[in-house]
């Protein structure tokens, strides 16, 4: 899907970026002449973070972008993800109103890699993306994005590597105590009855270091951050399943819609060449309250016994708990008796009539996640030439989620549905009981649904739970030998080992349908004991929702009433086919040489190296347990072994060789040209590595005489432990103009080739049945297609502080970032319920996470006492990954933009007051599928406001 209507906007945007950079360059060059004789000005806050970014980019050994502050918690953002979004080419996916999964240069989170202090971070999901919310910005003092690889960096990011930095207290060298409290006002939360919409964030930290009697140094830092915040949502949604139809109930009859050459819309030809429409199995309006409690602690100890030895111990802990209380008004027969349909040219319905039950659903969802990280680093300058660094670390995440679900469905009625423009919710213009007499049989449905008795057709309760545990233990040894040569200056080498254990237990569930004889009494009991007033005011006002309230109930009370004395508890750790129990051991060694020379009269520095990576995979999964029987005719059958579960252990190993070269040419004192060429890799997400194998039943009637013949094509995989890393070849060219300490212009072009396409394939495997192994075809294995794709892009960045302008304009500064990325990678539409001939006509999407256009800008002003920053972020549409299934429809997130404001006033040297506003324009989050205007989700979460008081000494 591609919005051609946005192209003029991008031409204007690009022109504006170039013009702004040109103006910035002119002003900066003029200022440079003044700065050469000016005194050095100490900066703090926003200007300090940008000055540090310029310095780090200039001095790095490869192509990087960074934002940092010397002080812990001094980054002026509410989350680490929002800090990252200020870096050129870095974008986030919105979750609960916040930036979450991060993409670099248009490549989605599954092609990136993240570390904290250079160590891999565990994940609480089935993929390798990092929940940056577990690292509060109050406790992080820097982020570095490596956009090019060098041999001594951990492998794992085709798009780049994100490294979070925590404080080293001796290096910081000062005593510092800080405490802050922020009040959070959420207008959407204030709509709730008996809720003022106020939440709170708190943080405190203390850092100190000492000179020891023996000449050594010792320091420590400890910080805490906590939050009690809300993130309510008002949304329109459709089910994850969808299909194409061309039937018209008024003409063709039938109940569920269908797709056939025999339908009138086919016009006597092939159905795919006639008119048809896409339809979801259900659609619903959702009112949701969500509250979250977060606690995090970061600590560090640094000890330098002497000038040659530096020992650092750091740890991180966080706990995140949140609940969602969902109330849905749902039309759950979205495919039934569809008629009077009109569509746009791509098949997205504009209007449609159908018959469905209107239902009141409730779901109470709880998720809790614990993260623990610990690292020890020893840096020893053994001699003047030889340095040794050792690092050991642990990272662990545990997550569980429960869902208590209940539903009450009404009798079937007809409805007229009208699509929207993507800003408003789609409309229900009429509800009636007689298809042939809409006006005469119309009901006042908006009034009827205010009474829970309306939902009297049937009811059901369900309980769900999943558990995930993910741990990484790692060790690293790095050696650095300084040379006294005219070309090579350092030789580096080292090795690293990590063991990644991932237990992802499939979500288990139990359902309890209310017997028909008990439905009336159960509904009456819920109405009597659990009914609640509509929880909020003004639902859907910003989206012009057709419905603003409906009868609902205390979600947990309704669930408990339906369940009664029955037990719906489940144990997800009981072996099941969807479990992924993975161990991934990675051993790598590298060698790298650093060099420094001259090309003409220009200094040329860089490094060249190679990294060898060995990966060993072991995956355990459930296998259907059978005994093999034979009848008198010699025909075999499989008999299930009662109560028996067999575990299948599949192993694989592979290696990768990753060469790299980085060059830096000093064209002048201010102008720097960098080039990088390297091989990179990313590992597939863990949920693709399942070893479970489902063996279909076999009877004697099928007349198989051998087990191998009975198995061939009768075994289905739940994953593929034989997957290997995705490799890439990468080329980067970056030109940076460092005009002064506060001003930089930078332009970069990059080109990458990679294999990242997945498909469901058939391959041979050894499968064990009744103690014997057979080499047979296994279907449904996720497989990386050997089809190279490429991405090409460019970046433009400008940073400038107008220190030479007359007061008060000397406090002004700007940051402008733009990234363009384009790829020939294709993600074909794969929805299993769409007819193959129609699926082939749907334009494929691109790679997950790729936005062709990304733009961010900040205009700030600050002096000794006051600072203000206005931020704008824009991201063009992108494909959002759905999960491990290769048979789901592509979800396209619409263009997104947001405006944020930050204000701060320093009352005195100890106290500062802050104000922050997020998503000032209340931009909705919108998803489409298959065709433009076929909306999967339209969500509003509102703006958020923070007022804080900070104390520092």
Brief rundown of the structure:
Keywords: Cell outer membrane, Membrane, Signal, TonB box. Its main location: membrane. Helix content is 9%, strand content 52%.
What are the salient characteristics of this protein?
46 strands; 5-stranded mixed beta sheet; mainly beta; 953 residues
Can you walk me through this structure?
The protein is mainly beta. It has a single domain (46-275, 290-325, 335-363, 379-420, 451-952), classed as Beta Barrel (Maltoporin, Chain A), CATH 2.40.170. The strands form 7 sheets. It has a 22-stranded antiparallel beta barrel, surrounded by 4 helices. Strands 1-6-7-4-5 form a 5-stranded mixed β-sheet. The longest helix is centred in the first third of the chain and has 29 residues, at 7-35. Mean pLDDT is 91; it is low at 2-43. Belongs to the TonB-dependent receptor family. Residues 1-30 form the signal peptide. It is found in: Cell outer membrane. Residues 421-920 form the TonB-dependent receptor-like beta-barrel domain.
Question: What is the secondary structure topology, with strand pairs?
Answer:
Layout: H1 7-35, H2 45-59, E1 64-68, H3 80-84, E2 90-95, E3 98-104, E4 112-116, E5 119-120, E6 142-146, E7 160-165, H4 169-172, E8 176-185, E9 198-211, E10 217-230, E11 233-238, E12 242-245, H5 249-252, E13 277-280, E14 283-306, E15 309-331, E16 339-343, E17 349-381, E18 386-418, E19 427-432, H6 445-448, E20 458-482, E21 488-513, H7 519-529, E22 531-532, E23 552-553, H8 555-563, E24 580-599, E25 602-623, E26 626-630, E27 636-640, E28 646-666, E29 671-682, E30 693-695, H9 707-711, E31 715-717, E32 726-740, E33 743-754, E34 758-769, E35 772-784, E36 789-801, E37 812-823, H10 836-839, E38 853-862, E39 866-875, E40 878-880, E41 891-893, E42 896-906, E43 911-918, E44 925-929, E45 935-940, E46 944-952
Helix pairs in contact: 7-8
Keywords: Cell outer membrane, Membrane, Signal, TonB box
Domain TonB-dependent receptor-like beta-barrel: 421-920
Pfam families: Plug, TonB_dep_Rec_b-barrel
């Amino acid at each position: 899907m591609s919005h051609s209507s946005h192209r003029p906007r991008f031409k204007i945007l690009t022109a504006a970026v170039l013009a702004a950079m040109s103006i910035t360059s002119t002003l900066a060059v003029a200022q440079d002449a003044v700065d050469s004789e000016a005194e050095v000005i100490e900066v703090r806050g926003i200007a300090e973070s940008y000055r540090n970014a310029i310095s780090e980019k200039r001095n790095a050994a490869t192509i990087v972008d960074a934002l940092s502050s010397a002080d812990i918690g001094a980054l002026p953002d509410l989350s680490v993800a929002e800090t990252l979004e200020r870096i050129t080419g870095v974008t986030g996916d919105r979750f609960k109103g916040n930036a979450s999964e991060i993409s670099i240069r248009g490549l989605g989170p599954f092609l990136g890699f993240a570390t904290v202090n250079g160590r891999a971070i565990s994940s609480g999901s089935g993929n390798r993306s990092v929940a940056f919310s577990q690292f509060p910005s109050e406790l992080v003092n820097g982020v570095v994005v490596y956009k090019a690889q060098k041999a001594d960096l951990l492998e794992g990011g085709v798009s780049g590597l994100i490294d979070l930095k925590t404080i080293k207290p001796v290096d910081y060298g000062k005593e510092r105590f800080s405490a802050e409290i922020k009040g959070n006002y959420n207008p959407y939360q204030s709509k709730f009855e008996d809720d003022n919409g106020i939440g709170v964030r708190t943080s405190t930290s203390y850092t100190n270091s000492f000179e020891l009697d023996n000449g050594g140094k010792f320091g420590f830092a400890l910080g805490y951050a906590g939050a009690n915040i809300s993130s309510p949502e008002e949304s329109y949604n459709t089910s994850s399943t969808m299909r194409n139809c061309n039937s018209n109930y008024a003409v063709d009859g039938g109940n569920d819609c269908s797709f056939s050459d025999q339908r009138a819309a086919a016009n006597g030809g092939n159905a795919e060449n006639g008119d048809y429409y896409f339809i979801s199995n259900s659609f619903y309006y959702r009112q949701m309250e969500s509250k979250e409690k977060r606690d995090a602690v970061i600590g560090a100890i640094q000890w330098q016994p002497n000038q040659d030895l530096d020992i650092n111990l750091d740890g991180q802990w966080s706990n995140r708990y949140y609940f969602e209380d969902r109330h849905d008004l749902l039309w759950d027969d979205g495919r039934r008796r569809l008629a009077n349909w009109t569509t746009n040219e791509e098949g997205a319905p504009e209007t449609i009539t159908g018959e469905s039950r209107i239902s009141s659903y409730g779901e109470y969802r709880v998720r809790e996640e614990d993260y623990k990280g610990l690292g020890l680093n020893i840096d020893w300058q053994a001699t003047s030439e030889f340095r040794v660094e050792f690092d050991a670390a642990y990272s662990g995440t545990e997550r569980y989620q429960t869902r208590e679900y209940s539903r009450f469905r009404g009798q079937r009625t007809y409805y007229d549905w009208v699509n929207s423009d993507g800003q408003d919710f789609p409309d229900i213009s009429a509800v009636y009981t007689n298809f042939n007499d809409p006006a005469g049989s119309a009901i006042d449905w908006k009034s009827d649904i205010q009474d829970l008795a309306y939902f009297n057709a049937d009811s059901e309760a369900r309980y769900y739970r999943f558990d995930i545990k993910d741990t990484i233990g790692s060790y690293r040894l790095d050696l650095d030998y300084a040379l006294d040569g005219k070309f090579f200056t350092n030789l580096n080498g080292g090795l690293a080992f990590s063991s990644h254990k991932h237990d992802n237990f499939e979500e288990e569930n139990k359902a309890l349908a209310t017997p028909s004889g008990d439905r009336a009494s159960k509904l009456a009991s819920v109405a009597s004991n659990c009914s609640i007033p509509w929880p909020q005011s003004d639902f859907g006002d910003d989206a012009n929702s057709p419905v603003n309230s409906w009868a609902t109930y205390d979600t947990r009370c309704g669930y408990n009433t339906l369940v009664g004395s029955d037990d719906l508890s489940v144990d997800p750790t009981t072996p099941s086919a969807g479990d992924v129990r993975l161990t991934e051991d990675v051993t790598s060694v590298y060698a790298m040489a650093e060099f420094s020379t001259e090309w003409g009269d220009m200094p040329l520095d860089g490094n060249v190296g190679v990294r060898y990576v060995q990966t060993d995979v072991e995956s355990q999964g459930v296998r259907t347990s059978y005994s093999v029987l034979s009848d008198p005719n010699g025909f075999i059958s499989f008999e299930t072994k009662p109560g028996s579960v067999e575990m299948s252990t599949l192993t694989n190993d592979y290696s990768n060789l990753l060469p790299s070269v980085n060059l830096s040419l000093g064209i002048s004192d201010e102008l720097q040209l960098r080039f990088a060429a390297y091989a990179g890799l990313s590992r597939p997400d863990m949920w693709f590595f399942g070893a479970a194998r489902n063996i279909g039943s076999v009877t004697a009637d099928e007349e198989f005489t051998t087990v191998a013949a009975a198995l061939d094509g009768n075994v289905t995989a739940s994953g593929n432990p034989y997957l290997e890393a995705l490799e890439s070849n990468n080329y980067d060219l970056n030109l940076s103009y460092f005009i002064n300490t506060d001003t930089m212009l930078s332009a970069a072009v990059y080109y990458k080739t990679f294999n990242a396409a997945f498909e469901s394939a058939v391959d041979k495997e050894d499968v064990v049945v009744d103690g014997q192994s057979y080499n047979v075809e296994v279907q449904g294995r996720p497989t990386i297609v050997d089809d190279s794709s490429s991405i090409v892009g460019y970046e433009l960045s400008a940073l400038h502080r107008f220190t030479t302008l007359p007061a008060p304009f000397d406090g002004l500064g700007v940051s402008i970032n733009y990234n363009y990325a384009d790829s020939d990678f294709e993600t074909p539409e794969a929805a299993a319920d769409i007819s193959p001939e129609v699926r082939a006509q749907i334009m494929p999407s691109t790679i997950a996470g790729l936005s062709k256009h990304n733009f961010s800008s900040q205009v700030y002003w600050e002096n000794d006492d006051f600072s203000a920053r206005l931020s704008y972020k824009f991201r063009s549409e992108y494909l959002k990954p759905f999960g491990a299934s290769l048979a789901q429809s592509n979800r396209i997130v619409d263009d997104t933009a947001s405006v944020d404001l930050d204000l701060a006033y320093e009352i005195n040297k100890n106290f500062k007051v802050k104000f922050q506003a997020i998503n000032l324009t209340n931009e909705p989050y919108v998803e489409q599928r298959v065709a433009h205007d076929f909306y999967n989700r339209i969500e509003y979460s509102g703006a958020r406001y923070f007022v804080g008081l900070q104390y520092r000494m």
